[in-house]
Write a structure and sequence with these properties.
It contains two helices and nine strands, in the order βββαββββαββ. The protein is α+β, with helices and mostly antiparallel strands and about 170 residues long. Strand 4 and strand 5 form a beta hairpin. The longest helix is centred in the first third of the chain and has 16 residues. The chain starts with a strand and ends in an 8-residue tail after the last strand.
Length: about 170
């Protein structure tokens, strides 16, 4: 969950609550990464875990570059009803669970296809919008996909979210 702190044209500045992620690291192209990571993450929430527990699927599915070239981190956001110690432990070694602290992020929503070119286009748009503020981006952009592939491509909601530094830049 998040609170909207400010809005600049199409950009929202959000404060995200602490949350848990189940993450898989995959290698490959931007466009292939989500498909490669989906099955192990889906298996985890479908009961491939220490408790054989089913975990509700939530949105969004997050994708961000890993520190290794050609490697991506794909994450399912875990339901807020779980704490780190109550979340079932993944059976698969490739699924990692992590706690994420509260964080301030800039977000730009858009609709359309799931391609790297669309990601880059909207990342540039978001960074350009931030350049006209006192806010400073810190770290890599994350791609948030909210809708299933079965929804027509032109209707799929996506967001580009960018972590913000705590101290604003000096203009």
């Amino acid at each position: 969950s998040f609170d909207v702190l400010e809005t600049y044209d199409e950009v929202e500045i959000r404060q995200y609550a602490p949350h848990l992620l189940a993450t898989v690291r995959v290698e490959g192209t931007f466009d292939e990464a989500g498909s490669q990571a989906f099955r192990p993450l889906f298996n985890y929430i479908s009961g491939d875990n220490s408790s054989d527990a089913k975990i509700a699927m939530t949105a969004p599915v997050l994708q961000q570059p890993d520190e290794r070239q050609g490697s991506w981190l794909i994450s399912f956001v875990m339901p807020s009803s779980f704490e780190k110690d109550s979340l079932p432990v993944p059976t698969s070694e490739i699924v990692q669970v992590s706690e994420q602290p509260s964080m301030r992020m800039a977000a730009l929503e858009y609709r359309g296809g799931w391609s790297q070119s669309r990601f880059v286009e909207h990342e540039l748009k978001l960074r350009s919008a931030l350049s006209n503020t006192t806010l400073t981006a810190c770290g890599d952009a994350r791609w948030a996909r909210h809708d299933p592939p079965s929804l027509p491509w032109c209707l799929r909601k996506k967001e580009l979210i960018l972590p913000l530094c705590e101290a604003p830049k000096i203009l």
